[in-house]
Amino acid sequence: MYLLGTLGEMSCEVRQLYGPFGYRLSVRWSDKPNDLKVKKMALEEISRLYDELVDTEFHVMPAGQFHIEDIYTKVKSNFSSLCDDSYLCIDNCGRGHNHPEWKHAVRRALDRLKRISPRVSKGERNYWTFK
Ligand SMILES: [Zn+2]
Fold first, then answer.
1. First to last CA, the chain
2. From ligand 1's centre to the CA of 93, what distance in Å?
3. Interval between CA 3 and ligand 1 midpoint (Å)
4. What is the 3-state secondary structure (H, E, C) of 16-40?
5. H or E element: which one contains 121?
6. Correct CATH for 43-130 of 1.10.287, 1.10.10, 1.20.930, 1.10.760
7. Domain boundaries, the chain
8. pLDDT tens-digit profile of 43-91?
9. How far is the CA of 17 from the centre of ligand 1 (A)?
């Protein structure tokens, strides 16, 4: 138990150190090897989804204003293989939400694009505009 506790703390430190750069090291050391493999695959998918959305500036979204839930629906229908509903934010992120982590990746991509892309801007709460 002591060992797991120590590794758990180490994981937290690693997560803080590398947090801003993404997901790579946010897996927990105390997990079984199988779980780690599943998580690694899930994180690779989420990473690919994020890159795809940022690179294409959400080309799956037509011009207009959309609620975040409509954006999730559209993203999921276009990238279903990258949207694993069973991998939860709460299992990945410190103070995470009890919903699929891929939705967090969608929000992170939107937050990134609102700063770097003239196509994407934040509207009222939960609404996003695409040009
Ligand atoms: Zn998350």
1. 54
2. 5
3. 27
4. HHHHHHCCCCCCCCCCCHHHHHHHH
5. strand 120-122
6. 1.10.10
7. 1-30, 43-130
8. 999 999 999 999 999 999 999 999 999 999 999 999 999 999 999 999 8
9. 17
Residue type (1 letter), 58: F
Whether 68 and 127 have beta carbons less than 8 Å apart is answered as: yes
CA of 64 to the centre of ligand 1 (A): 26
Distance (Å, whole) CA 129 – CA 116: 14
What's the one-letter identity of residue 87? Answer: Y
Q: Place 103 in a pLDDT band, splitting at 50, 70 and 90.
A: very high
Instruction: With 0.90 as the threshold, say if the pTM is over it.
Output: no
At 95, list the tokens.
Answer: 């103070």
From ligand 1's centre to the CA of 89, what distance in Å?
4
Rounded Cα–Cα distance for residues 8 and 23 (Å): 17
Q: Which residues, in sequence order, are CB contacts of 47 under 8 Å at separation 6+?
A: 22, 23, 105
